[in-house]
């Protein structure tokens, strides 16, 4: 197992700065996910770790050694691409062992590694098949197996499940998690899919514009987002946002706007606030109590504009004075569109962001 340390990394593509002064520490044996929208620099960062893209400045350390300018073959990494990149004329066994054969690995060692990887990925019955005779999920397993047989200390994944259907993605996601437990290798995984990130990562780095916005465990990032971007990027439906002001009233801290008044006295502010302060109140849909009050927040009225049945729960969209508010309803209470209902905010689960900087208060 090797750690990966990135120091003040800068990458330019032409005149465009894709990544600027990025720092990231991945512990040995850790599963880290790089999450962000298309164009945020996450794949560029992964490819720079792999040695496929030159850095403009900064340093990349793998296992305590400076690998900034090392050739990809000397970095002790294995890379799984979004496209399977299998050799069509070779069978599964040959695809998995090709790199080892090129490197002159003894036949007995090649057989041991291929057997171990095929057992892990349930590829045994498919070893003599060619890629054309495999499903998408099976091809991706072969691509992952080709990386496993290298027995690299660091494994890099560039959106490996994005070409698969939803059911296969779920199955392979579970297998990747199990694979990490078995191998104990350091894994860095790129995705724009928040479900993949939340379920796979021990820690995840949320990126925007080549900058890491927050690097922490999935639970911390979901429950205490560092800024508005992180808050709105994670969650489906996204976090509900209300613009307003914070002010002190009779020893209490109150969030107010034209239609809402919420007591946020118990909120864990990073710094004490004085006077009025422009802010944004954020609350997850599961913390909007629709149809009745749980006694935590003040109930207000809104019109039901849409109901989405999701099987185990319903997403109820409310029109609150022109603002669309999403609430998740778990019970079987009768809620109908075009009818008014009450809703309240569970104030012990809110987030507050500065109105100007958009950083968490």
TrEMBL record:
Signal peptide: none annotated. Residues 4-234 form the ABC transporter domain. It comes from the Bacteria. SUPFAM superfamilies: MOP-like, P-loop containing nucleoside triphosphate hydrolases. One of its GO terms (cellular component) is ATP-binding cassette (ABC) transporter complex, substrate-binding subunit-containing. GO terms for biological process: carbohydrate transport. InterPro entries: AAA+_ATPase, ABC_transporter-like_ATP-bd, ABC_transporter-like_CS, ABC_transpr_MalK-like, ABC_transpr_MalK/UgpC-like, Mo/tungstate-bd_C_term_dom, NA-bd_OB-fold, OB_MalK-like. Keywords: ATP-binding, Cell membrane, Membrane, Nucleotide-binding, Transport. GO terms for molecular function: ABC-type transporter activity; ATP binding; ATP hydrolysis activity. The keyword Membrane applies. This is ATP-binding cassette domain-containing protein. It comes from Duganella flavida.
């Amino acid at each position: 197992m090797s750690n990966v340390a990135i120091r003040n990394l800068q990458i330019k593509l032409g005149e465009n700065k894709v990544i600027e002064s990025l720092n990231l520490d991945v512990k040995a044996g850790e599963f880290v996910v790089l999450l962000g929208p298309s164009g945020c620099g996450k794949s560029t960062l992964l490819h720079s770790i792999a040695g496929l893209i030159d850095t403009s400045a900064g340093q990349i350390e793998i296992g305590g050694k400076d690998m900034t300018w090392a050739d990809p073959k000397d970095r002790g990494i294995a890379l799984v691409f979004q496209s399977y990149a299998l050799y069509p004329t070779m069978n599964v066994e040959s695809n998995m062992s090709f790199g080892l054969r090129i490197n002159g690995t003894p036949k007995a060692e090649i057989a041991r590694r291929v057997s171990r990887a095929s057992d892990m990925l349930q590829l045994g019955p498919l070893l003599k098949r060619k890629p054309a005779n495999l499903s998408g999920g099976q091809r991706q397993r072969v691509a992952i197996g080709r990386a496993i047989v290298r027995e690299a200390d660091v494994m890099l994944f560039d959106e490996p499940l994005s070409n698969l259907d939803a059911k296969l993605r779920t199955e392979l996601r579970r297998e990747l998690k199990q694979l990490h437990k078995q191998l104990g290798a350091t894994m860095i995984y790129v995705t724009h899919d928040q479900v993949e990130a939340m379920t796979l990562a021990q820690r995840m780095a949320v990126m925007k514009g080549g900058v890491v916005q927050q690097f922490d465990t999935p639970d911390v990032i979901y429950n205490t987002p560092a800024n508005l971007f992180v808050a709105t990027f994670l969650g489906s439906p996204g976090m509900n946002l209300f613009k307003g002001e914070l002010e002190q009233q009779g020893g209490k801290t109150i969030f107010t706007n034209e239609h809402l008044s919420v007591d946020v006295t118990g909120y864990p502010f990073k710094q004490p606030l004085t006077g009025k302060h422009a802010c944004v109140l954020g609350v997850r849909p599961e913390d909007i109590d629709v149809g009745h009050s749980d006694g935590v927040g003040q109930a207000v009225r809104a019109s039901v504009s849409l109901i989405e049945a999701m099987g185990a729960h319903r997403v109820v969209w409310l029109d609150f004075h022109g603002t669309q508010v999403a609430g998740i309803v778990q019970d079987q209470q009768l809620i109908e569109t075009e009818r008014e209902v009450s809703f309240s905010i569970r104030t012990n689960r809110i987030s507050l962001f500065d109105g100007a900087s958009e950083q968490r208060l």
